[in-house]
Amino acid sequence: MTTALPASMTLRDAQAVLGALRESFAAGTDATWRIDASPLAQVDTSALAVLLECARLAATGQRKLEIVDPPARLSELAHLYGVDGLLGIAAAPFEPTAKLGESRPADVPVVPILR
Fold first, then answer.
1. Which end of the chain lies in a sparser environment, N or C, as judged by fewer CB atoms within 10 Å?
2. CA 41: distance to chain centroid?
3. Which residues are paired to 36 by β-bridges?
4. What pLDDT does residue 53 have?
5. Which residues are CB-contacts of 72 (< 8 A; sequence separation ≥ 6)?
6. Helix, strand, or coil (residue 51)
């Protein structure tokens, strides 16, 4: 069984979303609780708190939590706060702005150093 998240999971939405997720967890019996994060368009750190509570619920119920298709913003926040491993959310790959062999991005002006 897969539970889909709403389009917004911010501080304003956190309590309602958490309540719906708790109901979904209680209704499910599968060994893996899947949460589809692809609908998320607006997220803040409250989303991490909600998902960490879901991880706690799953562990307490001896079930595995799987977050499916997390948007980039959610992945970035999870990585920034160091909970990506706890939630099983892979961080987006690092994209350098400089090309191979460049010591600086092309759009940064060079300022000579006066001695």
1. C
2. 12
3. 4, 68
4. 96
5. 92
6. helix
Could you tell me which of 64, 61, 8, 11 has the C-alpha nearest to residue 37? 8
Structure tokens at 88: 């099983």
Under a CB-based contact definition with an 8 Å cutoff, are residues 42 and 74 in contact?
no
Q: Are 102 and 110 in contact (CB under 8 A)?
A: no
**Encoding tokens for residue 58?**
């799953």
**What are the pLDDT digits (tens) for 78-104?**
999 999 999 998 766 666 666 666 665
At 113, the amino acid letter reads I
Q: In 8-80, which ranges are E strands?
A: 8-9, 32-36, 42-43, 64-68
pLDDT tens for 29-79 read: 899 999 999 999 999 999 999 999 999 999 999 999 999 999 999 999 999
Q: How far is CA 25 from the centre of its chain?
A: 19
Residue 97 near residue 61, CB atoms below 8 Å: no
The domains of the chain are located at: 2-87
Q: What is the CATH code for 2-87?
A: 3.30.750.24
Confidence check: pLDDT of 25 > 90:
yes
